[in-house]
């Protein structure tokens, strides 16, 4: 089952790589379109500049030789007036603005005398000229030897919008994917919760009938001459089964939390497990002298502790040192379970709580998943791998919030 998460991890990186490649291709194509449009606009501006040059020459020729026909000035003017989208500034060598087109000026302009500008409009055009002088959008027009004019132009509105469009579309795609991702994630969690509830309730229900029958038989066994000590030991196991069924029932629905000493709950769980592990394992416990008042479901919290201890024993393969420690850390009760087992690889430290993840040949991969659900969803705490080194050991850490202010605790049972 562990391979499922390896495949998922690699699949995620493959998906991200493909998505990044698609984005790069998309931006590359879009940038080429922008570059082609920018080149087309420069060609248009070059034609505009040539038309301006021809008009000036034609006017000079007509002044010197009025009898010689020249080029069609109306045609040249139509070329100049045909530019209705690209903002243009025409200046002389001294930087004086000779003409302008397609700028939205801050103040109205007299349509009969467009070059009679207010101070505000002149300042606006001067600022635009200053900005354009630092770009490559400039064409020099050689009118005659020693006489030049300079054409400055901005990108058209269409080009500006097209330049922004790929990034806007990319942003929309990212937002859409995030919305879909979180919607699917929440739906998946809701389905998982329904599966957990259904599985737990059905398990508790199926166990209930045979356990009730066994309890009835336990009352009859002494009358049938069975040794009472044997019956007592069997009764312990039957009651243990009843406790397990009760735990499944509590997982199937939100359990009722009660104020109690989390440290005492840990003591009971470790005391129970201490007599059921191999004597070759050294079992060390360190409990804080201060109470750990918290809202807990004792049966489920004991289950978590037993699960962690069992996993630690399995990781040590029958020999080593197992340690359980309780302490206070600010407003949290902290429980740490450490072993000297085979450890957990770094790549698996975040996936050990996933359903189905297991390194055991006969494991179901549900123990740590249930533990995470019990601690985080029911007790509003967190459980995580604090440290783990392959070949050295692992430490699991549980943190649950302490009661504030402390409440009176029931007497230990």
Can you give a write-up of this model?
This protein is 53% helix and 18% strand. The model has no long low-confidence stretch (mean pLDDT 80). It has helices spanning 2-64, 73-81, 119-132, 157-220, 228-252, 262-274, 298-316, 367-378, and strands at residues 88-92, 97-101, 138-144, 147-153, 258-261, 281-286, 293-296, 320-329, 332-339, 382-389, 393-401. The chain has 413 residues and is α+β, with helices and mostly antiparallel strands. The strands form three sheets. It has a five-stranded mixed sheet with strand order 6-8-9-11-10.
Short description:
The protein is α+β, with helices and mostly antiparallel strands and 413 residues long. Helix content is 53%, strand content 18%. The chain is built from 8 helices and 11 strands.
Poorly predicted runs: none
Structural class: alpha+beta
Shape, principal axes of CA atoms: rod-shaped
Per DSSP E runs of 2 or more residues, the count of β-strands stands at: 11
Major beta sheet summary: 5 strands, mixed
CA radius of gyration: 41 Å
Strand order of the largest sheet: 6-8-9-11-10
Distance between the termini: 41 Å
Mean pLDDT: 80
Give the helices and strands as they follow along the chain.
HHEEHEEHHEHEEHEEHEE
Task: Give the count of helical stretches.
Answer: 8
| Amount of beta strand | 15-25%
Multimeric status of the protein: single chain
Percentage of residues assigned to helices: 40-55%
Architecture blueprint of SSEs:
Elements: H1 2-64, H2 73-81, E1 88-92, E2 97-101, H3 119-132, E3 138-144, E4 147-153, H4 157-220, H5 228-252, E5 258-261, H6 262-274, E6 281-286, E7 293-296, H7 298-316, E8 320-329, E9 332-339, H8 367-378, E10 382-389, E11 393-401
Parallel strand pairs: 6-8
Antiparallel strand pairs: 1-2, 1-4, 3-4, 5-7, 8-9, 9-11, 10-11
Helix pairs in contact: 1-2, 1-4, 4-5, 6-7, 7-8
